[in-house]
Write a structure and sequence with these properties.
This protein is mostly helical. Helices cover 77% and strands 0% of the residues. Helix 2 runs antiparallel to helix 3 and helix 2 runs antiparallel to helix 11. About 6% of the residues have low confidence. InterPro entries: HemX (IPR007470). Keywords: Membrane, Transmembrane, Transmembrane helix.
Length: 346
Amino acid sequence: MADKTDEITEAKQPDKTSNRKGINWAALGIFFSTLAIVIFVCAFGYGYFQLAKVNTSLARMVSGLDRQAQKNQKDIAALQASQEAMQLTVQKSQELSSKQEQMIANWEAAQQGNLDKWYVAEAQYLVKLADDQLQFNHNVAAATTLITRADRILQKVQAPDLLEIRKSLAADLARLQAVPQVDTTALYLQLTALNHQIDQLPLPPRPLKTETASAVTETKDMPWWKAGLYRSWDSLRKIVIVRYDASPSLPLVMPEEKAFLYQNMHAQMEGAMWAVLHRDMPVYQTSLARVMVWTHRYFDQDAQATQVMLQQLQELIKVNVEPPTVNFANSLQLFDQYFAKAGAAQ
């Protein structure tokens, strides 16, 4: 019996050994599979990290290239602008060189005794000065003097081409002589003197008439009740006084309004002075007309100061301060045509 048991035990022992070997191979398979998965995950993570790093580097490189491209575009634009500026400078230099060559040619011609172009150029310069004096300073006298001098200079040149220019200058001179000359300085000083005289204008006296009738004499023969009623009515009339004034007398200016009246008069005179300097005829006439109206309305007409003021205002309001409308555009155009024709002939 014991022998059978031992045999059975010995027979079972090889089975346990085979089972242990099977279990070990399964564990090794699981271990290696897990290790392979871990290695794959690590490799994938490392690859993803490297890919992200490469993408970041590429993005930085693209951004840097964009900035460099923008900078290059700006540099190209700056170079184009510089090139255009250089071309413009070259063009101006060429024009200046041609002008210098023309001046040298004119100088050589002048050395040989031909001064006609210099005389014409001097006359043109004088006409330009006259135009500036007339347009900016409204100085008719200076413009007339300059035009006369230009015509005298052209008399030295015996050239048929200058006939039209001299005709135009003669017409300009005739129009200048027809323009009424206004001495702006003298007119301004006259207005300043009148402005100082405003404070000397006297206001009209307006005393109120007093009633000399006595209520005592009127109520002497009245009954007592009529006398009392009359006295009450007389007291009421003294409280409220209403008078009808049908005479064309001047309005009464209150003492507190006197300063405002004089200030308004000064303001209108200063407006007329401003209009003289700026050659504004409507403002000039409007300001002086208001001063005349207020002088008639508010000041004593019998006073000598008022009469002198009105007389001077009537004379000044007739002065024409409008700027002259004469210009020398036609003459200057003829000068340009003359020089263009002379340059083409050379």
